[in-house]
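Reviewers of the previous submission asked for a worked example of the structure-prediction workflow described in the proposal, so we include one complete record here. The input consisted solely of the amino acid sequence. No template or homolog information was supplied to the procedure at any stage.
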Amino acid sequence: MILYGVSAEVSIGELFIAGFGPGLLIGGALMVFVWIWCKWKGWGKNDGDGRLPFGRAFLQAGWALLMPVIILGGIYGGIFTPTEASAVAVFYALVVGVFVYREIGVRDLYMILRKSVISSAVIMFIIANAGLFAFLITRAGVPEAIGIWLQDVLKSPAMFLLGVNAALFIIGMFIETSASIIVLAPILAPVAIHFGIDPVHFGLVMVVNLALGMITPPFGVNLFAACTVAKISLDRIITQLVPFVLVVLACLMVITYVPSLSLGLRDLVYAK
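From that input alone, the workflow returned the following structure tokens.
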């Protein structure tokens, strides 16, 4: 969102506020889908065995649940940047794990750091290669050509949004998200404004669509990260991924063609 805001000269604050509606929609849809899927497959029937009461479990998990509050509160409160927030999260987790829950000992730190370095190296290697591929595609002028083609061919707002969604979905599979936003946002945002589409709404459509690229092969960074953590091969996860992608795509269509979902809270907060 920050990259889009800078590239398209749109208020980053408005983008963040507008993101609450789409975020809740996608999160809620995925939770409902997982619940229905597990019911259909018969998974998790015995998950409640030996489970603590809700109140007691909430109290025991209180220190861990406080982490996102500290991180998001610090970012939105201007105390630290998102990059600094990651360091704060690691330090907070270390303190809570060692001194509060006492599940981490001094001898465990070496293995924790070693696993972190290996996981980070694998992911960064993938990002580096995806970045190189994106650089070559960008130098070849492919994203710019697609943007110009969309501008020339699609003549109505509805068709423009549909064409942008299709193009960004394909682009997100091969080009790193940041590179796509930096190249395409200055090209597509003025066209969207020409069609009467709010640039904040268009930014949410663009960001959500390109975020799909992080869970779609061949350069789905989040897929490789999940496979590294779960210690499974990529081919085992791809077939199970399709329903989740379809759910997010359905949510994307709602976000695209129901702009009030994104702009309602924005207009309420930034009412003039």
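DSSP finds 14 helices and no strands in the chain. We consider this example representative of the routine output the project will generate in years two and three.
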